[in-house]
Design a protein that fits this description.
Layout: H1 2-11, H2 22-32, H3 56-60
Amino acid sequence: NKREIFKKIIKSDPKFLSTLSYDCLDIMKRLLSKNLSKRIKPSDIPKHSFFKDLDFEKIEKMNYTAPIIPN
């Protein structure tokens, strides 16, 4: 039921796995925050520690080698 799903989104907080790393949990909470003052700004997303090993310039230029190449 779409109405029930909408109510749950508005009224309840998302639940996260306890096995997630601190950085993963932090970015997800900040992306999904209902409070706009706590929500991460788009310009701050690449600076977040979750993405510390990514070079966003390489991504934009599509100059990254995939870590896993399926057969």
